[in-house]
Amino acid sequence: MKRLNTLVLNITVTIIDYLYRGRDFQRFWVLEEIARAPYFAFLSVLHFRESLGLRGQWHLHLMKEHFEQSVNETEHLEYMESRDGNRYWIDRFVARHLVLVYYWINVVYYWLAPMSAYHLSEEIELHAAETYAEYLTRFPKDVKIWEIMNDEIHHWQELREAARIIHPDRLTVNEKDAEPFPPDVSDLGVTTQIIGYQEHELISETTK
Questions:
Q1: At a CB cut-off of 8 Å and minimum separation 6, what does 30 contact?
Q2: What is the CATH number of the domain that holds 8?
Q3: Which of 53, 72, 178, 181 has its CA 20 to 30 A from that of 137?
Q4: Global pTM?
């Protein structure tokens, strides 16, 4: 399924990049509109499972995390709107129809194969971070885009961790892999590497 995810994503990215070449904030707005859909879908499935009494060990944690991710992506979306990302009706038409389809795909995908659904979202978040990084090679002083790029990297890390703690076939923890979560990193330095391009060097941002 990972190969299929990558293939579908590459085709979609190629189309979006072609349609939105030279229109950075319109492309960013479309990407942010799409990026929210998986988190809404994950929450829908988690709530439905909760209603059926199928609560897994990390169920509440995942619900909280995906809600926070959806809020953060909405904040990104509103910022892109403040920079005229949704100015043209054709962009709104394309994005909202894509989101409608993508949301329901993710609902089914997350119910049947949550690991694969997480992988697809990881790839999307990584692509978003790379898209912002490319923009920052041209406009390195755009502080807000730096912040948004870091958020996308953080979401990518969260999705990888979410995939790690769930069983491949259902939203419960594989007992042999069960560990305290979130992990205790209070005594460690957590390093996020941000790729710089052209005149920018690799930047390491360390938080404690």
A1: 16, 20, 85, 91, 94, 95, 98
A2: 1.20.1260.140
A3: 72
A4: 0.78
